[in-house]
Specification:
Structural class: alpha/beta
CATH class of the largest domain: Alpha Beta
Distance between the termini: 78 Å
Shape: globular
Helix content: 25-40%
Strand content: 15-25%
Largest sheet: 7 strands, mixed
Number of domains: 2
Number of strands: 22
């Protein structure tokens, strides 16, 4: 479908080749065919991108926020116009089924629209001064040049989550997408270019984490970093970013609690969607099911039956339920953890193997008789593997849910309002859903987690805080020096 084209970086409003003179390929995970070649950039390219972002910062940050918003609204219009093509591209480059690819683009539309609306607000706070004839308030200020490093699993939505608030707040950007999905990023950059965004405000660099990601994190003139990816990389960023403003959205090991009073059929739909949507490649994926012992067997039988009916294949086909994993390493990691589960004496009920032939396909997998100490119940797999654990009551369910290093998303299925509110209060997570799956965050509310999931929040009003600083302002119109704290 795509001829093998060589794509370029975008620096200072121009499409340019890397100084390295080297390129790399992006593969279609369904058939392993190359869909394009991309710049294998180096530190020199990052330096040029940072200079471009610096040179454009004064003009962009000086533009009134409602005027910046008009450009974001134009991005919304262009994304809507191109939604079908971009959704299809996501399926080709990343592998998720088409309906999810279209949902990914819709999320980008939603966040650009929401953040454009914030251009008329960007609210601060006003408060009384302790002194007469004195005004006190806060305003939101841009940070400066931001480095955005994004993953492959939501190759248009997550960049949009970062770009939209960064831009409306008046920052300029150096943007490095995952090397598994650079074409999606380039197509998004083309839309930004068409929107009327001034040159240099966003600069796109493709390349390896070592040669480009590391240079962004350590660059002395980049003032902020926003990263979505692995806990290991997040820890490295914290150690190496210096005193930059850093936002991290890292891993998850999310649980769906199913109580004995739950609607089992509704819970099953949530487990299938949470566990196997995007082939389990979501930081919010439901990789653990914590089931009340009285309904565990019924839940297991129905879950296995539903899982075995799921169809793997090309995400562009309407009959496909689950697409491929993103690359060979993802298949190997998933298979490794299936082996771990077997060694830990968990009971493999279905799946547990790669499909033969072309493509990075792995059968949806369910383990039962899992306990909370097993590695498959504690470590992020990022593949289509679900572990079922059994508990006696709501208190044990919450304890097991919290017995991990992560704290991103969580869910409980129950018809008891008391159990629902106990879960909301006691589960250690940034998101809790009641009678819904662990995935489905909306852009006008904050997204992020606690513990080793990282720090900071994206989207919603807190997404603005992530990409701006608070300035406190005092205006004294008394005509004399007034000293605070009661000093005479």
């Amino acid at each position: 479908m795509f001829k093998i084209e060589v794509y370029k970086n975008y620096i200072d409003g121009k499409w340019v080749s890397s100084n390295s003179k080297k390129t790399f390929s992006s593969l279609n995970p369904t058939n392993e065919n190359a869909i394009g070649r991309f710049q294998l950039s180096n530190k020199r390219d990052i330096d040029l991108a940072v200079k471009s972002a610096e040179d454009s910062y004064w003009e962009w940050s000086s533009m009134p926020a409602p005027e910046r918003a008009e450009i974001l609204f134009e991005v919304v219009r262009l994304l809507k116009k191109d939604k079908q093509r971009l959704g299809k591209l996501e399926t080709i480059e990343m592998g998720k089924v088409l309906k999810e690819g279209l949902g990914d683009v819709q999320e980008a539309i939603d966040i650009f629209e929401y953040m454009a609306g914030e251009g008329r607000r960007l609210f601060g706070h006003t408060t009384p001064s302790e002194l007469k004839n004195k005004v006190a308030y806060t305003v939101r200020m841009p940070v400066g040049v931001f480095g955005l490093i994004t993953p492959w699993n939501f190759p248009i939505a997550i960049p949009a989550w970062k770009l939209a608030p960064a831009l409306i707040c008046g920052n300029t950007v150096v943007f490095k997408p995952s090397s598994d999905t650079p074409l999606c990023a380039i197509e998004l950059m083309k839309i930004l270019e068409k929107s009327g965004l001034p040159k240099g405000v966003v600069n796109l660099i493709t390349g390896s984490a070592k040669d480009t990601g590391e240079a962004i994190v350590k660059h002395p003139r980049i003032r902020g970093i926003s990263f979505t990816g692995s806990k290991f990389t997040g820890e490295w960023i914290v150690k190496n970013a210096g005193l930059k403003k850093v936002g991290l959205e890292l891993g998850g090991k999310n649980a769906i609690i199913v109580m004995d009073d739950a609607d089992i059929e509704m819970a099953l739909d949530g487990i299938i969607w949470g566990g196997f949507g995007t082939t389990g490649q979501r930081c919010t994926a439901a990789s653990r099911v914590i089931a009340h012992e009285d309904i565990k067997n019924e839940l297991n039988d129905k879950l296995i039956s539903m899982t075995e009916k799921l169809k793997l294949g090309d995400g562009l086909k309407e009959s496909t339920d689950i697409g491929p994993l993103v690359n060979k390493k993802a298949v190997e990691k998933t298979d490794y953890y299936v082996g771990v589960g077997k060694k830990e004496k968990a009971k493999l009920m279905c799946g547990g193997e790669q499909l033969k032939g072309k493509g990075f396909f792995y059968k949806p997998t369910i383990f039962t008789d899992v306990n909370e100490k097993m590695r498959i119940a504690k470590e992020e797999i990022f593949g289509p593997v679900v572990s079922v654990l059994s508990v006696k009551d709501i208190d044990e369910a919450i304890k097991v849910c919290n017995n991990i290093e992560y704290g991103l998303s969580s869910a409980i299925y129950t018809n008891d309002i008391n159990k629902a509110f106990k879960a909301i209060e006691k589960i250690e997570a940034g998101l809790t859903y009641v009678n819904s799956s662990t995935i489905g965050s909306e852009v006008h509310l904050p997204f992020g987690g606690v513990k080793h999931t990282g720090h900071g929040r994206e989207t919603g009003i807190e997404g603005l805080h992530e990409f701006s600083e608070t300035k406190t302002v005092y205006i004294d119109y008394s005509g004399k020096l007034q000293k605070a704290q009661g000093i005479d």
